[in-house]
Amino acid sequence: MTSLPDHDSTDTNRATSTYLCIGCPLGCRLEVDELRGDIVEVRGFSCRLGKEFAEQEHTDPRRLVTTTVAVDGGRWPRLPVKTTATVPKAVVREVCRALTAIRVYAPVRLGDVVAHNVLGTGADVVATRDMPLVETKGEDH
Amino acid sequence: MIDGRPHVLHRAYDVVVAGGGPAGLGAALAARRAGAQRVLVVDREKEAGGILLQCIHSGFGLHRFGEELTGPEYAQRVLHAALDDGVDVLTDAYLLDIGPDRQVKLLSTEHGVSLLDARATVLAMGARERTRSAIRIPGDRPAGVFTAGLAQRLVNMHGVLPGRRVAILGSGDIGLVMARRLALEGVEVVGVFELLPHANGLSRNIVQCLHDFDIPLHLSTTVVGIHGRDRVDRVTVAPVDEQLRPVLARAWDVPCDTLLISVGLIPENELSRALRLRLDPVTMGPVVSSAMETSRDGVFACGNVVHIHDLVDFVSAEATLAGGHAGRFATGQHPTPDNVRLQPSTNVTYCVPHTVSTEREHTVYLRVREPLLRSALRLSTPDGRVVHERKLRYVVPAEMVTLRLRPPLLEGFHGDTLQVEVLPR
Amino acid sequence: MTVASLDVAIIGGGVVGCAIAHELSRYRLRVALLERSTEVGFGTSKANSGIIHGGHHASPDTLKGRLEWDGNRRWGALCEELGFGFARVGELTVALSDDDRPALERLLRHAEEKAVPGVEEWTRADVLRAEPNLTTDVVAAVSGPTTAVINPYEACFGLIESAVHNGVELRTDCPVLGLATDGEVWTITTPDGPITARFVVNAAGVFADRIAAMAGVSDFTIRARKGEEYMLDKRLRGLVTHVIYPCPTPTSKGTLVIPTYDGTIMIGPTADEVDDPEDVTTTAEGADRVLTAARRLVPGISERDIIAQFAGVRAVLDTEDFLIGPTAAPGFLNAAGIQSPGLTAAPAIAAMIVELLRDAGLDLVPGAEPGRLDRPVRFGGLPTPQQERLAADDRAYRRVTCRCELVTEGEIRDAIERGARTLDGLKFRTRAGMGRCQGGFCTARCMEVLARELGIPLREVTKRGGGSWLVLDRDDLATGSEPG
Fold first, then answer.
1. Does any CB of chain B come closer than 8 Å to the CB of residue A80?
2. Longest Cα pair distance anywhere in chain B, in angstroms?
3. Which of A6, B119, B317, C230 could form a disulfide with B330 if both were Cys (CB 3.0 to 4.6 A apart)?
């Protein structure tokens, strides 16, 4: 566990924001101290990802998007997908809305790209499972 | 492919595993690696993967694989690992019974009724959701009341929506995840109502599913009535007092057409009961030794069927342990007995496994009853002598505590019972 | 002059209507049963206690009292013929103090007057030996060995399926909107057009007064008396083996402790008058009353044991008796005001209605020997060799749909073939969804099978017909439309 060098504890312009880390389900309680627009200290993380998350969440909150898209000819009518990187929290809903226009066709392999650079975020949207082609209605019964 | 069907069902197996989710697949793989030749996984769905197939969100595998995976990705990974190592996976199949003579009765679309010999079996059937009836909400019985898991299946697998204006009872993780899911699908989520004064689910879900979407979380509130003749048209909610009794004078109506119930999971124990296994009345799952063996010789168990886990990574670890012992059991090596009983005491609702040995290393999982900001885990003899103590960070009921128990920690202890407590410090 | 397309139209598919349909199907007649819901028995009948009363409860001064014992005797044969469950568990009416003794005396007198066999007084010792979980406050009891328990909805399905098999037409989702007669033929207005019949039998339960009013013979009013019931966990099986009654009051048999045919213990019902004949809500207050009363009889019952609850509405007349017979309107007969012991009396009511129809001029020519339907398959309860055979011959029996009750997809498909159209229709025919998980696992599967067999999308599958839609698709959300 590391933290930034000792601060001047009497500085009254320091502001502390708290966040719940979402890096993994442990949910560490993070505190970010900001002074004159810069982050001066981060506390409460228990892994490198937690510290990075705190800084990110404070300056530019981002989220991974997981949803489903329509798929034809597969075992199920919906294909679960995810963004390959986080996108700004503010565009999450829009990403999902954009994906309602997508329809893919079985067979699909895990990792297949269903949308490139969605809404210019730099993230692709990929399948998170194989979706086998079901030839006739009877095959699965 | 995400599944495989054997065309041939053998008459005898070394290990038969009931359930093809992460627990069952993990146990099957471990059994193979422990030397079992013929290992069969039986799963009731069209494809193996268990509940993970409908958990399309991420958060799985950070500990086990060092990557954050979605449910389906984690499932596919463990399934392929099992298949690659020669595990048979039979889907659209159901394990009906395990006879006293280790004869397993299966029902499968592929083969009909089959009777097989199994040297060892592993129960990995997972969990089911607590239901409305179990918590007795008066009123009508209209369409539109679903458990959160059922709604999750309907939305993520069948591609339909449970309604257009949804209230959620219980802040369990499944309900929180569905709040986000539904919000992203354009469904109005009017609020989450939680009986207790604190949220039940993981904090990451409170943030990502409620805060992110401005969905209100009403703590110390419960649903006291469901209304609507054919379909839900509103629910009545009320705050509760310190004894968790509704204060009806302050009740108010919430117009909605859907109520999701997310008040927790319990082990899927129909088969455990039918086999007359000793059950832990708190977990409602079987009592298990440190080898994950139940009260019946050669019947092992792992995953949510034993106790409800938060992280699938720990399910996989438990499954590896159970499967390894099952595999060795099948080749004639029975687990060495435990010599210490773990007794949940102050602020601990349960410990799994229920017994351990002073000679071996274990991972013990436990849950606390009440949250504590600064706490200590203490192991002591029944007459109060402290054997081991360890500092913990904040603990909450929603997040399982793991304790790595090594023989040196128990040096000098010669009793047969250890009390496990989590105390404030 | 209109020619009637039917000999008899029965309005109402509760247990009385279904019993009448079954009885009439023995004859060469054109008969139709019109039921407003999507499934038969979905009104009062499925919500009652399921008790075939011993025959000694209702006073022989009443019509219901005279039909009770007759009905009891007919049920055994009916269950045998139709293949639904019937368990003669016996009953105990329990006195908790000496003030209750006159009520016991009354029961013994009724039994004697109606020649009900085996009804006798038991001492406190007798009672506690037979029912060790009963309260030790018991002072004496009257035992009635003829009392039985059935699943009332199974009875409705069994009766109607046999009737349909033998030529009766069943119309569901068919509310009656109007009635008119030219003196010889009745014209019944339904949403699907008019139906004509020589005779009309009013078995419309809580709506019988409205139907009678349509026929111009509105000389009675039905009051609705709601009863809430609470099911307890299966692990309490054996808590009691007899149906346990407290001593009765003028309006109610009281809160009972009932070992149902399926082995669950049920407590209830309440008896509260309600304004709305469709008010089937359960209430926290009703639950408390039922628990208090049940614990008075069997102290070992706890509220934690409750796993399900429901309510039904009794159709009650001011006379507190049945109203069965012809009316001023020729060809229009009532079978109304059927409250307890309505289930018990149903086959006797049906026999009585058939006789009244004969008296009114209906020609009763026996038909061919009524065809017997196969009993519904219950895969889970079969011995292994039979399971093997069934699964070998028919793939549908190889897939488990309801895990808690072990119901296979074959049984779901069979239920749909026998008339199930809704989730509840499946539930009450197969028990799918009645177990510990209360449908958490099987609901999606049952919906899938219904959608597939009925050729409808998932959004058109309902819980119990009418507006009870279950799911929407994304288009519905966009357009704001509602399924069903």
1. yes
2. 66
3. B119
Task: Report the gap between the CA of A89 and the closest CA in chain B (Å).
Answer: 8
Q: Which chains touch A (3 or more CB pairs under 8 A)?
A: B
CB < 8 Å to B394, chain A: 29
Task: Mark yes or no for CB contact A70/B159 under 8 Å.
Answer: yes
The answer, for A114 touching chain B at a CB cutoff of 8 Å, is no
Same domain? C262 vs C114:
yes
What is the sign of the dihedral through the CA atoms of C245, C246, C252 and C257? negative
* Interchain contact, B70 vs A110, CB within 8 Å: no
Which residues of C are catalytically annotated? 53
- Residue appearing with tokens 């310190």: B242
Q: In this structure, are C179 and C198 located in the same domain?
A: yes
Q: Which of A22, A78, A128 sits opposite B208 (nearest CB)?
A: A22
The two counts, helices (H) then strands (E), for chain B are 8, 27
Kindly list the structural domains of chain B, giving each domain's residue range(s) and its CATH number in brackets, ordered by start.
12-128+266-330 (3.50.50.60), 131-263 (3.50.50.60), 340-424 (2.60.40)
- Out of B113, B140, B185, the one facing C281 most closely (by C-beta) is B140
DSSP B154-166: HHHTS--BS-SEE
- Write out the residue range of the structural domain in which residue C108 sits: 91-145+223-316
Same domain, C137 and C183: no
What residues have CB less than 8 Å from B235, skipping those under 6 apart? B167, B223, B225, B226, B227, B253, B254, B256, B259
> Do C141 and C238 have their domain in common?
yes
- How close is the nearest chain B Cα to the Cα of C103, in Å? 34
Q: Does the distance separating the beta carbons of A77 and B394 come in below 8 Å?
A: no
Q: Is C427 domain-assigned?
A: yes
Q: Contact B311/A19, CB-based, under 8 Å? A: no
| Distances from the Cα of B233 to the Cα of B10, B229, B253, B258, angstroms | 54, 8, 10, 8
| Domain-embedded: residue C57 | no
Domains present along chain A, CATH in parentheses: 9-59 (2.20.25), 66-127 (3.10.530.10)
pLDDT per residue, tens digit, chain C (484 aa), is 678 999 999 999 999 999 999 999 999 999 999 999 999 999 999 998 999 998 888 888 899 999 999 999 999 999 988 888 899 999 999 999 999 999 999 999 989 988 889 999 999 999 999 999 999 999 999 999 999 999 999 999 999 999 999 999 999 999 999 999 999 999 999 999 999 999 999 999 999 999 999 999 999 999 999 999 999 988 899 999 999 999 987 766 789 999 999 888 999 999 999 999 999 999 999 999 999 999 999 999 998 888 889 999 999 999 999 999 999 999 999 999 999 999 999 999 999 999 999 999 999 999 877 667 788 899 998 999 999 999 999 999 999 999 888 999 999 999 999 999 999 999 999 999 888 788 888 999 999 999 999 999 999 999 999 999 999 999 998 888 888 6
Q: What is the CATH number of the domain that holds C417?
A: 1.10.10.1100
Same domain, C192 and C283: no
Residues of chain B neighbouring A26 (CB-CB closer than 8 A): 399
The chains in contact with chain B, meaning 3 or more Cβ pairs closer than 8 Å, are A, C
DSSP letter, residue A80: E
Predicted complex ipTM: 0.93
Tell me how many domains chain C contains: 3
pTM above 0.95, yes or no: no
Cα C11 from Cα C211, distance rounded (Å): 8
Q: Which residues of B touch A141 (CB under 8 A)?
A: 109
C164 and C187 in a single domain? The answer is: yes
Yes or no, beta carbons of C391 and B112 under 8 Å apart: yes
Residue B384 and residue B343 in contact, taking contact as beta carbons nearer than 8 Å = no
